[in-house]
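Question (not urgent): is this output format expected?
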Amino acid sequence: MPTLHIDDLPAAIRAAKQELRQALPAYRERFLELEAEMTRQAAIIAAERAAGLPVIPEISQREIDAGTVSLASLAAIRQRGACVVRGVFKPAQAEAWDRDIADYLARNRLDDLLAHRAEDKYFGELASSKPQIYGVYWSPAQMAARQSPALTATRVFLNRLWRWQGAAGEHFNPDAALAYADRLRRRPPGSASLGLSAHCDGGSVERWLDTGFRQVYRHVFSGQWRDYDPFDAAWRTEVREVPSPAVCSMFRTFQGWTALTRQGPGDGTLQLVPIANAMAYLLLRALQDDVPDDDLCGALPGRALSIKPEWHAPLLPALSSIPLMQPGDAVFWHSDVIHAVEDRHDGQGWSNVMYIAAAPDCAKNRAYLAAQAAAFAEGKSPPDFPADHFEASFPDRALPEQLSPLGRAQLGLV
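Got this back:
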């Protein structure tokens, strides 16, 4: 899949906005309609949260395994663009992995290596931009979780929430969950100013500039925003990202993490704006006349797509912390959903997670697997991430021969 290169960003933005406005002369009227809908949804979420009601749907691993997730839950997940899955792993298993990871990092003196790591600028434009994320990918615990049948079944379930078939055939194979090696978050109690402001991953300026992204959002850019389906996979596997460390090159149906410790609101944990179609608002907001012609509400290539109060205020009342999570629970959010991390951790224990997303089998993802597998063999950082390569010298990292057949398949090693 070719990448998107931009030689003159201001000129490219001006040209894109002019073209998009010409194709949608009523861009202001359509935006005002959409803004009213976003305001309505955000108010409902804020009211439910204030009343102590869950704003993020919750299901269980038992329901997924038994095929008994209700139609109401499926509809809620599609509307809110996120879900909590209870009991993916037994608490004892998650806690054992947490101890194993702590020992793995200590044995290999990761703290010493972190002092010399490459700078990760992906979150640099956010007001809060210093999450405690560790560039570790190949620990035995992470590999065991990725290749587990339970988490694999959950990721397949999430893939199947999408419209993965089109008139020309399959956009992707939902039943093959590929492994996207991602990092760890380990956050001690009492840590402050180490969160992340609200943002989206998976593309910034390219959402307006790339032809593939424009096709993904074709209904939005044509003014038919009510017909936009965030779960329609058409063109999703054809988009081009601006190359940059920490910009995901795989198509993820859902981002996600699995809890290794007990954590909840106030523990420096995840926050979501659980509105699945909020990306439509972000896209049309940037076309409005109060935004400079060479600006996309602050979007920059190779960075997270920042959500700013001066541009996106109607969405922010919906920003909600996820509920209390037990070790072994997991949370997933649509790849376009706005998310953040609380600045302060005022809880009593560590807030630790493994980032494990849902990524289905498609040509775009297979292309990335080849480069990722080469990095795995050498213990290097995967291609999408800063080239720290910490684990290349770790003698106890996971090795290909230690994987199960399912784990090998998910990494494209068969």
